[in-house]
Design brief:
Strand order of the largest sheet: 1-2-4-3-5-8-6-7
Order of helices and strands: HHHEHHEEHEHHEEHEHEHH
CATH topology of the domain at 97-150 and 239-465: Aminopeptidase
CATH class of the domain at 97-150 and 239-465: Alpha Beta
Helix content: 25-40%
CATH architecture of the domain at 97-150 and 239-465: 3-Layer(aba) Sandwich
Distance between the termini: 30 Å
Structural class: alpha/beta
Number of helices: 12
């Protein structure tokens, strides 16, 4: 771990230097105009004449014998066929998080609420990107689109911050980072795990009690069934987890490192303000996308022992719904038994680019294997982060990785940090506000923070994928 302590952000590239670099990268200009032929020249100067020689010149030479048989007209040489060279799969544009962040945080997606057309559009954008680099859709339970895992989203009527059926939805206002499980919504599915069903029964009871509403008793005693809870809840539509698999090439290729970021945000408020969520969490989603080209190249070189499963979750802003659905409904061959580590990236765009905060402990506060991996991965950077703060353990259970942590998985949570560069402090002032836009990321660090987080994350994933363990 580096020991620099300067809090002064690194100087950003100037507009002129960026413009010069862009100009240098431009292809050559349009082809030159064709030159106008000189009218003084004509074909007659090069063709034989049938007229008599001019006076004073010698008589013409005797006629030569008949010409040799004419050779066949030359044919256009046929060049040997060769397959066109594939375009380089790792492009600077696709490997820059700011490329993807600009789209994901645009007004066009209207805040990426769960569910919404904006979130669906973001999912399609991610799917096109991962397919470009050869990743595969792993969800064998969805033959129509194995890159998606869809789930129904519900809420209990009367929940604070949730509108009655038929009214526009608005997220409950809060300033504490993240969400408790099923805080503002949940999923329902026949055959769901009994412990999740029991949790939803308790959620229903506490919600009705808080609202002073009478309870509907379970028909057969004990737990209310999925059918009963469905009748007591309001359905808002289908959420989506977007996923892609980069298969490993080594002896542990059946194990996976899960790399995730929630792609949803809170949508549009009642006043019509779009909450673009550039930092929360277009930044983390874009970092994952930007890592795909480099990791795909590493896989082609045989440098990934374990497989990498990318997940862009939906429903996080409702209460970690998408991640819980994934754990409760594992896709074939990718259950928790196959998971060898989880990296969750959430809000990594703001403040200066010299520090980062992480959670690398289990639920008992004990360091997991990511503690050493993060420090070693940072040391491998050409320009390491000055500080890796471990000051956000209070958020460990309020982010998507917590769902996996409860199953005993080793989880690393990567976060931009708080207001104090040396650790601690407050969240960004724009958290869950319409002002969370890309221009503030550019103001804070010129987009270098997401880029540097991507570089660190790629190192972490590579080390986790190739980590030696006792058999």
């Amino acid at each position: 771990m580096a020991t620099k302590v300067s809090d002064t952000p690194r100087p950003l590239p100037t507009a002129s230097s960026r413009a010069s670099a862009e100009k240098a990268a431009q292809p050559a200009g349009a082809a030159s105009k064709a030159r106008t032929p000189d009218p003084r020249w004509s074909k007659d100067r090069f063709e034989p004449s049938n007229t008599r020689p001019l006076p004073g010149l010698p008589a013409p030479l005797p006629q030569l014998p008949a010409p040799l048989p004419q050779l066949p007209a030359p044919t256009t040489p046929v060049e040997p066929k060769c397959e066109p060279k594939p375009k380089p799969e790792t492009s600077a544009k696709d490997s820059d998080p700011m490329t993807h962040l600009a789209y994901l945080a645009s007004d066009e997606l209207k805040g990426r609420d769960t569910p919404s057309e904006g979130l669906d559009a973001a999912s399609k954008y991610v799917q096109a990107h991962v397919q470009k680099y050869g990743l595969v859709g792993p969800n064998k339970d969805n033959a129509a689109n194995p890159f998606e895992q869809r789930f129904d989203v519900f809420s209990f009527a009367g929940k604070p911050g949730v509108a009655a059926k038929g009214e526009a939805h608005e997220h409950g206002a809060h300033k504490q980072f993240g969400h408790q499980l099923f805080e503002e919504g949940f999923y329902l599915k026949e055959g769901m795990p009994r412990d999740t069903l029991a949790m939803l029964n308790r959620k229903y009871e506490s919600t009705m009690k808080a609202e002073g509403q009478p309870l509907s008793p379970a028909r057969g005693g004990g737990l209310r069934s999925v059918e009963e809870l469905r009748s007591l809840a309001t359905e808002s539509g289908k959420g989506v987890n977007t996923m892609a698999l980069l298969p490993g090439t080594g002896p542990h290729k059946d194990e996976v490192i899960v790399v995730m970021a929630h792609m949803d945000h809170v949508g549009t408020d009642r006043r019509g303000n779009i909450h673009n969520g550039a930092d929360d969490n277009a930044s983390g989603s874009a970092v994952l996308m930007a890592a795909v080209p480099e990791l795909a190249e590493a896989q082609k070189r045989g440098e990934l022992d374990r497989s990498i499963l990318f997940i862009w979750t939906g429903g996080e802003e409702k209460g970690l719904v998408g991640s819980q659905y994934f754990v409760d409904n594992p896709i074939p061959g990718l259950g928790t038994d196959q998971i060898a580590g989880v990296v969750n990236v959430d809000m990594v765009g703001r403040w200066d680019d010299q520090r980062l905060s992480v959670v690398d402990t289990n639920r008992k506060g004990q360091p997991n294997y990511f503690r050493d991996v993060v420090d070693q991965a940072n040391a491998k950077l050409a320009d390491p982060f000055d500080r890796i703060n471990r000051d956000i353990n209070q958020y460990r259970d309020r982010q998507d990785g917590a769902v996996f942590g409860r199953k005993g998985e080793d989880v690393l949570f990567m976060f931009e940090g708080l207001s104090n560069p040396n650790g601690g402090g407050d969240l960004i002032p724009e958290y869950h506000e319409p002002g969370d836009d890309i221009d503030l990321i550019l103001r804070d660090n010129g987009g270098e923070k997401p880029r540097r987080v991507k570089d660190l994350m790629v190192n972490v994933i590579g080390m986790a994928a190739n980590r030696k363990t006792e058999e």
